[in-house]
Structure formats: structure tokens, C-alpha cells
Design brief:
Elements: E1 2-11, E2 14-16, E3 20-21, E4 25-29, H1 36-43, E5 70-77, H2 80-89, E6 98-104, E7 111-113, H3 130-142, H4 146-149, H5 155-158, H6 165-182, H7 187-197, H8 200-206, H9 213-225, E8 229-232, E9 241-243, H10 244-251, H11 268-278, H12 282-288, H13 292-310, E10 319-326, E11 330-338, E12 344-349, H14 355-372, E13 380-384, H15 392-405, E14 410-415, E15 429-435, E16 440-444, H16 452-462, H17 464-470, H18 473-477, E17 482-485, H19 488-501, E18 513-515, H20 522-531, E19 536-540, H21 544-555, E20 563-565, E21 567-568, E22 571-572, H22 582-596, H23 607-611, H24 618-628, H25 639-651, H26 660-688
Parallel strand pairs: 4-14, 4-15, 8-13, 13-14, 17-18, 17-19, 19-20
Antiparallel strand pairs: 1-2, 1-3, 1-5, 5-6, 6-7, 9-11, 10-11, 11-12, 15-16, 21-22
Helix pairs in contact: 6-8, 11-13, 11-14, 14-15, 19-25, 19-26, 20-21, 22-25
């Protein structure tokens, strides 16, 4: 079965998730404590053996919980084999292709809803049910001679229906022996019993638990077809050496104080997973320990199998895992790097590797083992942060592992990482947000409507194509010059005024402007673009820190002509806002803050207010005014708010407040950029075109 829709209600912080569609490989994205883990854990309630705890019920829904509430429900789509199995057992029913499974807080059992399929709730003798089978035996016993009947023990058949074939076979064999022992001298009784017992091998497969068609169907699905939700959250870490004596005690039910030997080894379950992938039997290892040739062969084979099963999820150079047997019945895990040319290096104990390496290795061992076990095929795997602590390269390895598993399992996982998002189809990408006032989680199927902070990893993931285009040198060589600027506001102003001026003489339309995240990121970003074939220029503030950036860039191979500082008439200007006439900029400031600070006694600022502060830049003067009024609740001056106001007015063509002088001053910076680009082209031409002799 595959989960196609689900809904969670009254579970912890979730009042009602609404009906959510999911695909075969679905990611839940959300900030910390948004409810991602809660969603995954709520879905485990749909396991047939799960129980709903009172502690998991939403405290704020006491009134609703007075009646029966479906805490978790899921709509499941059956595959062709599952549909066929139901048809064979219940030939009189119309085809059942979907099933709704749900659990409430009042019923200890999971429940089923078959929609519009008509299913009888009346008791039926025609059903080949366990109850009818027991009744058939009871009728047989009631008709045998009284001296034999009173000695027949019916307790075996009056217990719960057998859940396995072995249990059924053993039960029937015991009852069969009893009949033969008690009725050995009554041939007629034996003949009647043989009519019942002769087909015992096929009886179990044909039995249904339940006397009504509905109960029989529900019990058949619960026993044979019910989906399994497997929740992964505790990723254990392997550090190095295994004390086999302690491990064998654990497998025999003797609880040791720990499995530590020299270095910590976290829990016997991790050891079992390692041995499972290696197809290694600890008892077999103990048997051959004193036979060197057999020991070497066994360890060589198991090490090869372990490496083969781990490497598909391991990105970067492959690794070779070697298991070594040491005195004292100690098994060590030794790792080597295998390079593309076949060279093997860095061989050593796992405990000598970096913490990130050990965590990655341990995660892949545990997860690969748990998911490769046959009992997890066709399961619904729930993973809580499977890529935590992993390098992005390794995260891609885990994502490849998830994609491969999605063929035989359905996978739902929670993550914060853009590198773990690889399907943006609605239903395969879900956003979880927390309403802080009500402390309730909300799931967005249309994830693009979530708030910007929640969407951050999704946006980074969506931008992977942009990153790949940057590192393609052919694109770089054939692109317009790139102008790296220090902030997003620089980019917004340059693009807005470029559109506003529409000056064909500047030859700058459209500008290819790339904003750095902050000043500290200008240097590496510029070098990165330059190294990937882009003709790169850097537009900087006229501050000491920006001049230091310029010096470092020139040390790294940039020419002075590629360094552009804000200036006006040959005189330095500290920031791009200094290209805007004071009165024009103050109009935007007063319009923005008159509303924001009305309750704090804000009055319109004038140019005289700025001059009185004596700073070099209009931004510095305004920041000083805001600092002096912090006690009134003015907080810090936000230059980005003003930038957005001005750019929005340009987009709306409501620019009466912008003077011709401001326009001319922006034209000057565009001319400066164009001139520098031409100068650099001339320098490049002179150095690449050979001179005639």
C-alpha cells in the first residue's frame, strides 16, 4: 500500500493538519519546533500495534476529545497484487482499490473505512472463517460418543486465533494426536475426523478471522496487508572496536553493562546492523577464530560485502571497510580511502577518523541495514533529519539512497537542508509552519505560500541551477561583465535607476549585477566569478573596510581598473545613498517613518537636521539621529526600508519627489562603470593581440 493522503488532528501541537497529499518520496520542510517530528510520529499511530497515549492528546482540544476523534487517518492506494489477494478471499465483493485507515483516542484497535464498497455486517456461515472452523470442530466433538467427548480438551481451540502458520500447525497436530489417542478403537470417529484434518496444510491459508464479511475483511487486511510505518530518529555512532564476548552475551539475552572496549561503541543494535551488511555471523567467527586460513577467508568475504553495500550511498572517493580479528576476541573496523586511480591510502581504525566521517559512516551502516532487511520492503519509512551533521556532498549521497529505496518503499522525511530537496512537485515537498500564538502546526501543500524564513532552504535548493550556471566556464566567457556589489540595497538601487533613466547612451541595459551577502563575502565571490570565466568588476563603498577589500582583490590578481568606488565629480561618496540628493532621500525617510513612528512623536526631518550631525554620509547622519532617539523606541535606522520605498515608487512611476540632480548623479556612476569596462577591454586586447614587427 502507498499513502496518498493523510490528516492529523488533536495530536500534540496539531489541531488539524487538513487533508495533505503525499508522493512516494516526500520531504517536510520547516523551522525548528514547527511540528515536523510531530507529523512523522503521528503517522506511526497508523501501525496496527501502536497505541495512542493520553499525553499525546492536544491539551487545547479537551471539548472536542470528549467524543471520538480520528487522531491520524490515511488514504492508501492498493497495488495490483494486494487487490488480487482481496479478490481471491472475497470474490463476492467489488474491487477494493483504496482504503482509509484511522486511529482514534477511544478505540484500542486501528480501524478501516472502505468508502462506497458494500460489505455485509451480518454473520455468515459461508465465510471460511476461524470462528466457523472452530464451530465445525465443536459440532464434530458434540456428535461423538459421550465417553470420548467428555475427555476431549477444547481449550486449545477456545483461545485466540493463531497468528502464524507454525502456531496453527502445532495446535492442530496436538488436537489430532488427542483424537487418535482417545478414539483409537472407534473407527467411525477417526473417519469423520480425517475428513476435517486431511487438508490441514491448506486450511490456514484459507481461514479468515471474523464471522461477518466486514470483520473478516478487516482482520484479513490487518493480518496480511496492513502497511508498516518504520520511524528512524536515533542514528547511533560507531567509533571503532567491538568486544565480541560482550556482544554475544547481548544476543543471548544477557544484558551487559556496555559494549565499550577501549573506545565507545554505541549499542548492540548498531553492531547487529554492521554484521547484517557484512553477512557475518558472530558465532561463526568464534568457531573459525583458531583456524587462520578459514578466519582470513571469512573476514575477506565479509569485508568485501560490507564495502559493496556501503559505497552506493558514499559520495566522493570510495572507501574500503576491513574487519580485523584481534586477540581477546576483539573485532576492529578499519577504513581505507580508495582513489580513482586505484591507489589505497589513509588506512586506519575508524576511531581515528574525524567526527563527521564517523557520523556519516555510522548513519549509512544503520540506515542501509535497517532498510535493506527484507521485512522493510513495501514499508513507509519515516526519517527525522537523516542528513544532520553531513557535508552537502554526503547529503547528496543520502538523497541518492532515498531515491533508490523509494522504488520498494514509500519515504517521508523531515529536513532543513536544501541539498536534501530533489523533488519540488506539490505532495513531494511539504512545508510545516508553527502558529506561535496558538502553538499549532500548519502544513502547506502549496508550499510557495509559506513565509520567507520557512522557504529559505527551498529557495536555496531552487537556486542550484543558478549555481551550476555560474561554475560553467563557457557561460562565464560568453556573458556580460559582472558587477559585484556589497549589499542587496546596492543591487536594488542600480537596477531600479537603470530602468528609471532609460538612457541609451550609457549602454548598460540590462546590468548584470550580483549582490554579495555582506562585505566579507565580496572578496571570495568576486574571485569565484573571475576564476570561472566572468569579466568581473567590483563596485565598493568609499570606506576603509571597502578599500581593504580592494587591496586584497588586487593582491589576488584583479586590476585597479576593475575596482570601482562610489564617487561624484571625482569626489568620494561613502555609499550609494550619497548619490541621492538629501531632500529627495529625506522625502522617502519621512514618508516611511511618519507612519512607523507616529506614536513615538516622530516629526519630519530636514536637511538642517542632517548637517547638524556632521557625518560624512547621509546614512551615518540618520543613524546618529536614530541612536539619539532610541529611548523613544526608534530602534535602529533601516536603510533597506528606504531603499524598498524608493524602488517601489520607481516601479509605480510615482517619482515626482526625485529631482533631476539625483538622476544626473546616478547617470555619473553608470558612466563610470561603462568607462571602466571599456578600459579593461583595451588592456586585455593589448595583452592578448600580438604586436606587428
Amino acid at each position: 500500500m502507498r499513502l496518498r493522503k493523510f490528516r492529523v488532528r488533536a495530536f500534540r501541537c496539531i489541531h488539524d493538519s487538513g487533508e495533505i497529499k503525499v508522493g512516494d518520496l516526500a520531504a517536510f520542510i520547516g523551522r525548528n519546533e514547527s511540528g515536523k517530528t510531530t507529523i512523522l510520529e503521528a503517522l506511526t499511530l497508523l501501525n496496527k500495534d501502536s497505541k495512542a497515549s493520553e499525553l499525546d492528546l492536544c491539551d487545547e482540544m479537551t471539548d472536542e476529545l470528549k467524543s471520538e476523534v480520528r487522531l491520524a487517518e490515511g488514504d492508501f492506494e492498493l497495488n495490483e497484487n494486494e487487490i488480487r489477494l482481496i479478490q481471491e478471499k472475497f470474490p463476492n465483493l467489488q474491487d477494493i482499490k483504496t482504503i482509509k485507515i484511522y486511529r482514534t483516542q477511544t478505540n484500542p484497535r486501528v480501524q478501516y473505512d472502505f468508502g462506497d464498497v458494500k460489505i455485509s455486517g451480518e454473520a455468515s456461515k459461508r465465510l471460511n472463517s476461524w470462528e466457523n472452523f472452530v464451530e465445525r470442530i465443536e459440532n464434530f466433538v458434540s456428535n461423538i460418543p459421550n465417553p470420548i467427548r467428555i475427555r476431549v480438551d477444547m481449550k486449545l481451540l477456545q483461545s485466540h486465533p493463531p497468528r502464524t502458520r507454525d502456531a496453527f500447525t502445532n495446535m492442530m497436530a496436538e488436537f489430532n494426536n488427542q483424537i487418535y489417542l482417545l478414539a483409537s478403537e472407534d473407527r467411525q470417529v477417526i473417519l469423520e475426523w480425517e475428513k476435517i484434518y486431511k487438508d490441514v496444510d491448506n486450511i490456514y491459508d484459507n481461514l479468515l478471522v471474523g464471522t461477518t464479511e466486514r470483520s473478516a475483511l478487516e482482520n484479513f487486511i490487518e493480518d496480511k496487508l496492513h502497511p508498516r510505518f518504520v520511524y528512524f530518529s536515533d542514528y547511533k555512532k560507531i567509533l571503532g572496536n567491538i568486544d565480541l564476548n560482550e556482544f554475544l552475551k547481548e544476543t543471548k539475552g544477557i544484558r551487559p553493562k556496555g559494549l565499550e572496549y577501549i573506545e565507545e561503541f554505541d549499542k548492540a543494535e548498531t553492531v547487529k546492523n554492521l554484521f547484517y551488511l557484512a553477512e557475518l555471523d558472530a558465532n561463526k567467527l568464534e568457531e573459525v577464530a583458531n583456524t587462520p586460513s578459514r578466519l582470513i577467508k571469512l573476514l575477506h568475504t565479509t569485508s568485501r560485502k560490507l564495502s559493496e553495500r556501503l559505497n552506493p550511498a558514499w559520495k566522493g572517493d570510495p572507501i574500503h571497510v576491513e574487519l580485523r580479528y584481534n586477540p581477546g576476541n576483539i573485532l576492529s573496523v578499519v577504513i581505507s580511502d580508495v582513489h580513482k586511480d586505484g591507489m589505497v591510502t589513509n588506512t586506519g581504525l575508524l576511531n581515528r577518523r574525524a567526527e563527521g566521517f564517523k557520523w556519516t559512516f555510522s548513519f549509512i551502516v544503520n540506515f542501509a541495514a535497517e532498510t535493506q532487511r527484507s521485512e522493510l520492503k513495501e514499508a513507509i519509512l519515516l526519517l527525522d533529519e537523516p542528513a544532520r551533521n553531513l557535508h552537502p556532498t554526503q547529503q547528496r549521497g543520502i538523497s541518492d539512497l532515498l531515491k533508490n529505496l523509494a522504488g520498494s518503499n514509500q519515504i517521508l522525511y523531515a529536513t532543513h537542508s536544501p541539498f536534501m530537496i530533489f523533488d519540488y512537485t506539490p505532495g513531494n515537498l511539504l512545508v510545516v509552519e508553527l502558529d506561535k500564538r496558538k502553538h499549532l502546526s500548519h502544513i502547506y501543500y502549496d508550499y510557495w505560500n509559506a513565509d520567507d524564513q520557512t522557504l529559505t532552504p527551498i529557495l536555496y535548493g531552487l537556486s542550484r541551477g543558478l549555481v551550476e550556471s555560474i561554475i560553467d566556464r563557457e557561460i562565464g566567457y560568453n556573458s556580460r561583465p559582472v558587477i559585484i556589489v556589497e549589499t542587496m540595497t546596492d543591487s536594488m538601487y542600480l537596477n531600479a535607476f537603470d530602468r528609471f533613466l532609460k538612457d541609451p547612451n550609457l549602454s548598460m541595459n540590462p546590468l548584470n549585477i550580483v549582490p554579495a551577502y555582506n562585505k566579507n563575502s565580496v572578496l571570495p565571490l568576486a574571485i569565484f566569478y573571475r576564476n570561472h570565466g566572468y569579466n568581473t568588476f567590483v563596485l565598493l563603498d568609499n570606506t576603509d573596510q571597502s578599500r581593504q577589500i580592494s587591496t586584497l582583490l588586487q593582491t589576488n590578481g584583479f586590476k585597479a581598473v576593475q575596482m570601482i568606488f562610489f564617487e561624484l565629480g571625482g569626489q568620494p561618496r561613502q555609499a550609494i545613498e550619497d548619490l541621492i540628493v538629501d531632500e529627495d532621500y529625506l522625502h522617502a525617510v519621512n514618508q516611511t517613518y511618519e507612519i512607523k513612528l507616529r506614536k513615538e512623536g516622530y516629526t519630519n526631518l530636514t536637511r538642517e537636521d542632517l548637517v547638524a550631525k556632521g557625518k560624512k554620509s547621509i546614512i551615518d547622519n540618520l543613524s546618529e539621529i536614530w541612536r539619539e532617539n532610541q529611548y523613544l523606541g526608534w530602534e535602529k535606522f533601516d536603510r533597506e526600508d528606504i531603499c524598498r520605498y524608493i524602488c517601489e515608487k520607481i516601479a509605480l512611476e510615482e517619482t515626482e519627489f526625485l529631482s533631476d540632480k539625483t538622476k544626473d548623479q546616478f547617470r555619473s556612476i553608470y558612466r563610470l562603470i561603462a568607462e571602466r569596462i571599456r578600459q579593461n577591454q583595451n588592456i586585455v586586447s593589448e595583452t592578448t593581440i600580438p604586436h606587428k614587427r
